[in-house]
């Protein structure tokens, strides 16, 4: 990631990776395992923190571009990072071409005219009560609910937990969150 590979490279590389996967849909892609075993009609995209932001972008971009070869059934947005409320040095570093905090659709999906084109059937937004990014995750959920996107969106909140807690501790709430994510993927 940045500074060696500044944004928007992470976004573009992630979309290119999905296009590469889609290139296997006819069984003649460069990766034999994908050609033989992958069910590209059952694709899920998942990301945590900044990765959740990128996952959301990839799903929207796939829909806006009319990407064929994969069917994105769902996107898991876990403890997402979206734009904040202050134009701090980190934001200026990450988005040097943005003139305002709320004008970049990568960081503020509410201003993305392509949001209704998001290429998936359902989205799971996971937030944690003690995560400083909780409110931006809830706002993203509300944005999806109020948009013209025609999929199903769920919000899952873990009480008394912080950012990406399930990656660092093996407690009951971590197990519940992981089970919720598995259920989201395995159930229609």
Automatic annotation (TrEMBL):
SUPFAM superfamilies: alpha/beta-Hydrolases. InterPro entries: AB_hydrolase_3, AB_hydrolase_fold, Carboxylest/Gibb_receptor. This is Alpha/beta hydrolase fold-3 domain-containing protein. It comes from the Eukaryota. Pfam families: Abhydrolase_3 (PF07859). Residues 1-166 form the Alpha/beta hydrolase fold-3 domain. It comes from Eucalyptus grandis. One of its GO terms (molecular function) is hydrolase activity. Belongs to the 'GDXG' lipolytic enzyme family.
């Amino acid at each position: 990631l940045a500074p060696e590979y500044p944004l928007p490279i992470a976004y573009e590389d992630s979309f290119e990776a999905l296009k590469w996967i889609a290139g296997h849909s006819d069984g003649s892609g460069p990766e034999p395992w994908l050609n033989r075993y992958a069910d590209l009609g059952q694709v899920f995209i998942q990301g945590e923190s900044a990765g959740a932001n990128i996952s959301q972008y990839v799903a929207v971009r796939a829909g806006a571009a009319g990407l064929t070869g994969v069917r994105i059934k769902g996107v898991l947005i876990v403890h997402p990072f979206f734009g904040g409320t202050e134009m701090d040095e980190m934001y200026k570093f990450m988005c040097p071409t943005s003139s305002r905090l709320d004008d970049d659709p990568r960081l503020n999906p509410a201003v993305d005219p392509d949001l209704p084109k998001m290429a998936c059937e359902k989205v799971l937004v996971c937030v944690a009560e003690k995560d400083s990014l909780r409110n931006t995750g809830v706002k993203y959920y509300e944005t999806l609910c109020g948009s013209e996107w025609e999929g199903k969106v769920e919000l899952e909140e873990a009480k008394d937990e912080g950012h990406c807690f399930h990656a660092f501790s093996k407690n009951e709430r971590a197990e519940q969150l992981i089970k919720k994510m598995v259920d989201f993927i395995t159930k229609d």
